[in-house]
Write a structure and sequence with these properties.
Helix content: 40-55%
Order of helices and strands: EHEHEHHEHEHEHEHHEEEHEHHHHHHEHE
Distance between the termini: 72 Å
Number of strands: 13
Structural class: alpha/beta
Shape: elongated
Strand content: 5-15%
Number of domains: 2
């Protein structure tokens, strides 16, 4: 039977859509920390087995470790054939990788190719892919033409990005990728954030998909979204880009935020714990006054005070300090709770029409 095709990372990525599956032969934990987009976990050693083989290498010898490891790998590949790969057709064409050396992926690729499947093997494994991600995250952002959607919290920036995407615009939704709304209250319940490596892989995947001849719309974000940090090159490219500023009335912003943060309404204790984190910044007296509103379930008043006393001053200082073209921005006034108003701004941006020049 034909031996597996060995591909460099450039060759594999240029043909990535040709593969029916991408198989990650590393352990489940390695896969969970980061993996090539679309890759399925197909471990030839689980976490405990990998630790066992590593201990044998260190404490006994390479020969003993390889002998024990080979037996474990053989059993696990047999199990994969009986379960995960049992229904794959004759024409199946997978790409397989492991960490770097190719022992785990090579064993799996050899067996699958001997069965008769057309198999490709990634030279250098995940480590080669990771190097490519790091390189591209430096290279791609400066080559893109970003359009920054700015505006105070609750002005509908994320809604505008969704609207632009629905009309076919190129959109980089950083909060969606990070699974966080970007503030001290921005954690999304039940949605853990990706680790930093996987966040960067998700960013790389999105940035790689963009046409550099067309603008990319992105929200004005800080360097950190929850626990995820933006690459420096992306931060600089966004901060030097042309801006559009949204403006909305305080009451409209409050209503939008209450509709988006219903988990705090349902679980006020969770909001109370988050407010505690702002004590050092605003002082015990201010925090206590916010808590009294929370205890009385006066959410509209609480949100308006949070906007006026915390979010707006913080946002304004950050924008003036970091976004070099903010004073050139076009201003759009809207009610973000009205879908038609958000869509109208999106169509205006795509048509290239402007609203009011920023004063």
């Amino acid at each position: 039977m034909k031996a597996p095709d060995v591909l460099t990372v450039d060759q594999a990525l240029s043909r990535i859509h040709e593969f029916d599956d991408i198989l990650d032969a590393r352990s489940p934990t390695e896969h969970s920390l980061d993996h090539i987009p679309r890759a399925l976990s197909a471990p030839v050693l689980n976490d405990a087995e990998r630790a066992e083989v590593g201990t044998l290498y260190r404490n006994e010898s390479g020969f003993v470790a390889k002998r024990v490891g080979a037996a474990l790998v053989a059993r696990n590949i047999a199990n994969l054939l009986d379960t995960q790969f049992a229904t794959r057709p004759r024409e199946w064409h997978p790409l397989i990788y492991c960490w770097r050396g190719g022992n785990r992926s090579g064993a799996l690729a050899t067996v699958l190719s001997r069965i008769g499947w057309r198999v490709s093997l990634l030279e250098g494994g995940y480590k080669a892919f990771r190097h490519r991600v790091i390189h591209d995250l430096e290279r791609l952002p400066p080559a893109l033409e970003f359009r920054v959607i700015a505006g105070r919290t609750g002005c509908g920036k994320s809604l505008l990005l969704h609207s632009l995407a629905s009309y076919g615009a190129q959109v980089l939704d950083l909060e969606s990728i990070a699974r966080h709304r970007g503030s001290v209250l921005g954690r999304m319940p039940g949605e853990p954030q990706p680790g930093q490596r996987h966040f960067e892989t998700l960013l790389w995947e999105r940035l790689s998909s963009f046409d550099p001849k067309r603008p990319v719309f992105v929200e004005s974000e800080s360097r950190r979204i929850g626990t995820c940090h933006l690459p420096e090159s992306l931060t600089l490219a966004i901060r030097q880009a042309q801006c559009v500023v949204l403006e909305a009335e305080l009451g409209h912003r409050s209503r939008l935020l209450m509709s988006q943060y219903q988990h705090f309404v349902a679980q006020p204790d969770m909001l109370d714990a988050q407010l505690e984190r702002l004590t050092e910044l605003h002082g015990r007296e201010t925090i206590q006054s916010w808590r009294l509103l929370l205890g009385a379930r006066e959410f509209d008043s609480l949100v308006q005070r949070l906007l006026d006393e915390h979010y707006d001053p913080t946002y304004d200082r950050s924008m003036q300090r970091n976004f070099t073209r903010l004073n050139e921005a076009t201003l759009f006034k809207l009610d973000p709770t009205q879908t038609a108003a958000v869509n109208e701004v999106a169509m205006s941006l795509l048509d290239g029409t402007s609203a009011e020049p920023r004063q």
